[in-house]
Amino acid sequence: MIIPKAERLQSEELKEIEDIAKEFECSILEIHGRNRCVYAILGDENHAVMFKRIAGLSYIRKVDMIESSYKLMDRRSGLSDHIVRMGETEVGKDAPFIIGGPCTIDPSNPELYVETAHALKEAGVDALRGGVWKPRTNPYSYQGDENALDIILRAREETGLPIDVEVMDADQLKLALAAKVDVLQVGTRNALNYSLLKQIGRESAGTNSAVLLKRGRHMASINEFISAAEYLVAEGNPDVLLCPRGTTPPLDGYRNHPDESITPLLKNRTWAPVIVDPSHSVGHADYVLACSLAAIAYGADGLCIESHVDPQRGIGDDPKQAITPEKMKELIKACRSAFPSRYKAI
Ligand code: PEP
Ligand code: MN
User: Fold this and answer.
1) Nearest bound ligand to CA 248?
2) Rounded distance, CA 341 to CA 96, Å?
3) pLDDT score for 343
4) If the chain, 346 residues long, is cut into consecutive pieces of 10 residues, what is the mean pLDDT of each piece?
5) Distance, CA 104 to ligand 2 centroid (Å)?
6) Ligand number with the minimum distance to the CA of 304
């Protein structure tokens, strides 16, 4: 990875480096961090001569050769000081970043979603979530509806809060990007869909849309999770949020096997913020508070929680696992007071 002395390379400087890289059958990818650009060498970067020629240029601060399968996501990479911002908020800086909202937006009842959004703003959430298109295990279950996008856009407009929407394919991505959705969610089922990850990384590069990547529920290793996020960053979008959400087989009594305990492992290996989803992890509204506090104790930067003003009138997962905005308010208070003692990466 190439780190320039200035915030970014001038075009003639970039051209000079590209010409050197081309001689060694490599190319250069510019990655826009919020504070500075870094440049990844694509191809076989282990050419000592290429390395020395680039490192010797007067406008280059350093060239890092990180021995890691995820060079950009690695804690030692030039992106290690990258901060994901949502509007004015730095994710996970002073308080846990809380995303809240129903599992699924009911398109036949827009007022219910908007009412929930206002109640959650009042409760203190930092961003709203809501499923427009739904990945359902059963093909006969409700699959989502494009019209629900307008409902969550209206809620953003009225509350001023950023929004998180899951996308599962190219058409949905296109609509979400056109609507300037703040957080593109990649669900657990697509967590290892590398062509979708590449497409999302490429098309969201240079936009203000971050990507919340859920952990695949059959995903075995931490490195596999981080490597999936590497696809997004390697295509040009460093605004990634890692979201543990429980794995399968479930712990008897829970919906999944809660995995908030991987948070410090992620934070030791990578710089990306960790946003834990307790709702899908435990799958019952009654256990969401405990799982949220555990996540914060493990060092999570935030939480993504299903919430609804009247869970029994919700669709998708809401009747089982959504908490009310009143419970959300209590949860935020409890998590805020636990946050200062959070785990520090070592
Ligand atoms: C969701 O957030 O509603 C969802 C479907 O999540 P997951 O992909 O974690 O199952
Ligand atoms: Mn859900």
Assistant:
1) 1
2) 12
3) 53
4) 93 96 93 84 85 95 86 91 89 94 98 98 98 96 96 98 98 98 98 97 96 92 96 95 97 98 96 97 98 96 98 96 98 92 56
5) 7
6) 1
Residue type, 315: I
Candidate of 152, 164, 245, 318 to mutate for ligand 1, largest count of ligand atoms within 8 Å of Cβ: 245
Ligand 1 pocket list (CB less than 6 A): 103, 131, 135, 187-189, 214, 245, 277, 280
How far apart (Å, rounded) are the C-alpha atoms in residues 261 and 295? 7
One-letter amino acid at 208 equals N
Q: Determine the pLDDT at residue 344.
A: 56
Question: 256 Cβ partners below 8 Å, 6+ apart?
Answer: 217, 245, 246, 247, 248, 250, 280, 281, 282, 283
**Token output for 274:** 């960790």
Please give the structure tokens belonging to residue 102: 């129903």
Q: Give Cα separations from 315 to 23, 143, 236, 325 (angstroms).
A: 57, 11, 35, 17
Against a cut of 0.85, is the pTM above it? yes
Q: Could you give the C-alpha distances from 137 to 105, 122, 130, 188, 265, in angstroms and in order?
A: 18, 33, 18, 12, 30
